[in-house]
Amino acid sequence: MSASLTNQAERMYAIFAELVRRYQFRDRDQICSHGLSISQCYALELMAEGGPRTMGDLADEICLKISTATRVVDHLVAGGLAARLEDPNDRRVCRVEITKAGRDLVARVRAGIVAEYEAVLRAVPAASREAVIDALSHLLSAFKQRQCAAADRCEKKEGTNAECNRNRPRRNRKARNA
Predict the structure, then answer these.
(1) How far apart are alpha carbons 22 and 36 in whole angstroms?
(2) Which of 19, 54, 123, 176 has the most neighbouring CB atoms within 10 Å?
(3) Sheet with 53-54: strands ordered across
(4) Count: domains in the chain
(5) Residue 161's domain spans which residues?
(6) 132 assigned to some structural domain
(7) Contacts of 106 (CB under 8 A, 6+ apart)
(8) Is 60 domain-assigned?
């Protein structure tokens, strides 16, 4: 690696570390003011965007174990924000979907966060805003590619791969753990 690239990577690390700390606490405060945990909010957002899904798929998407995702959903169901559905093709499968109350809450949380981003973007010169958003999009793609490559390596070792398995046919647990 060249000295210039190493220097850029060091600067990127320092900036990202600070950005993540600030982002994480800001989001936590915004979300928690609505009585949700971060995981509950992520689960609701995914259900609002993509419709009903199995508990296993939801767990994969929010990067939690199924047992933890089940507890997250338990709280959402108890609060009337999500509902469990029986799968019409397989009664052993539990699907979860967002309710109208859940959609309304996601809309309020999202509106608050978007308002916060508007305030942040006002501090960025107007001529640079699209470039900043494009750069963030490119970084996200690069991180996803590296995460999937790492997950593929782990899958070969451990037989699991949450992020990348989302769009692949699911293997049964015995085959996954064999």
Answers:
(1) 19
(2) 54
(3) 53-54, 94-98, 82-86
(4) 1
(5) 127-178
(6) yes
(7) 41, 44, 45, 48, 98
(8) no
Question: Angle CA(143)–CA(146)–CA(148) in degrees, nearest 5?
Answer: 105
Q: Which tokens in the block code for residue 122? A: 């006002």
The pLDDT tens digits of the residues spanning 58-84 come to 998 888 899 999 999 999 999 999 999
In contact, 71 and 40? CB cutoff 8 Å: no
Instruction: Tell me if 157 is assigned to some domain.
Output: yes
Q: What crossing angle do the helices spanning 38-50 and 100-122 adopt, rounded to 10°?
A: 110
Q: Taking Cα atoms as reference points, which of 110, 50, 51, 109 lies closest to residue 83? A: 51
Side chain identity at residue 131, one-letter code: A
Q: What pLDDT does residue 154 have?
A: 54
165: nearest Cα among 54, 45, 37, 43: 54
pLDDT score recorded for residue 136: 92
Task: Output the CA–CA distances (angstroms, integers) from residue 166 to 51, 54, 60, 169, in the order listed.
Answer: 15, 11, 7, 8
**Can you list the residues of the chain whose pLDDT is less than 50?**
157-178
d(CA 149, CA 136): 20
Q: Where are the beta strands (DSSP E) in 30-137?
A: 53-54, 82-86, 94-98
Considering the domain boundaries, does residue 134 fall inside one? Answer: yes
Amino acid 172: pLDDT: 39
Report pTM.
0.71
